[in-house]
Amino acid sequence: MPNLKKLLVAVIMIFVSLLLLSQFHIDDQLFVPSQPSTNEVANRPPKAKKSPETWKQLRVQVNLSPISFIQLNQANQTFIDETGIYVELVNTTDKLTDAEWFNQLVQEYSADIMLSDSVSVMGFAKKGWLLPIEQSSNAGFSSPAWLMNQLKWNGYTWGVPAQIDPYVLVWNKELMAGRTKESLPSNWEEWKRILDPSSQEGASALLERGTAAVELRAMPQAWFAWHDGDKEAFLSLIRRLGLLWPEVNQAPLMRADWYAKGVADNAQGSGLKWNQQLAQLESYRAHFIPWGEKASKTDTWDLLRAGRVAFGIVPYSEAVAEVSEPLAIEAPADVHLPAGQWATSRSYMIASSSQHEAEARQWIDYMTSLAVQREWYDTLSVLPAHEQAYIDRWRDIRRWLPDMFLPQANQGAALFHAMEPIYGWIGTAELWLKGAATTEQLQKEWNHSSTISR
């Protein structure tokens, strides 16, 4: 019996100890870690000095580089500290496909907030996967018109712009030594003169520069490269070569026209169209070699540094992370109409299955505020979607946005509207450049749309 009493006393003491221990660790029980996965998950308890009962939980899913995810995590922690709303961040290694988005939403285990390419927002909204963004929240409604118009459908706005990412030209300075002066060519005729010295025009150009006697490095087979399957990159490439340009009344739109007073920017525009002369590349198609969609740095940046690729068209966010000697980035502001570059953006969306809509709007408002976007720019050179940043001219920020995308530019929304039917042609144009489509098919696809100049 004494042994039994001792055993009972010991059991009771252990039970009491466990009960007390659980009281000291109540914080750890409030937040259940996510199930193990291949995703990178940030799941830190908040530091906010608030009652545990006031904490609510959001889940945000993004697809960012590791260093950008660290920056978002820091901003998220500040939001948690200030509001007491706990937010779990999930960084996926790959972009989700439409089927994966659908499966998550149908089974109601999707994130409350998702960050995606702005061009995807409209498709998700039409499928009923998103909640509309109320203008009363002020989230994103200080972004340029060309950007906001991509997010509107059926009288509602379905996303909040978070970042702008223009395409830039990256080039090897050592390879091009003696071929260029201070700036790169502005049209295809000038490009031919520096890239093809064997031509009569190229030889004359080198003589004019006084470099005919200088031993030039041989040009590689690949003059231009871009990520295969990236339509915006290909679009930006032919824009930069001066082979796709905007015009009004069959006259190329120049920089002076872009900032002309009294010209209103609206989605329909007034006689504004696009024109192209891509067929001029027919004899040079072998020099346009895209990188594979899953190409590694060895297949892209190492080739640029070694001079085996002369020029690459890449997103600005990729370029600022990778460029070092002997490579250089051409700022979009150094290229003027009718040539130019293109830009994409990313936006936050709220899933229709979210049970925390008010908290989701509050988180998006915070992350898209001017102050937070400035931190992103100062730390990682991530371009903000807030137009006030460009009006205030933070540091050199206006150098990295093409003319047609700046807030004060006229007709930006109209050009985006006129570009919509061309996206189908871009696919055919890329196939043509690879030799997989005929010139007749290229022109037929171009003439298919009534909104395009002929």
UniProtKB/TrEMBL annotation:
SUPFAM superfamilies: Periplasmic binding protein-like II. Belongs to the bacterial solute-binding protein 1 family. It comes from the Bacteria. The keyword Signal applies. Keywords: Signal, Transport. Pfam families: SBP_bac_8 (PF13416). This is Extracellular solute-binding protein. Coiled coil: none annotated. InterPro entries: SBP.
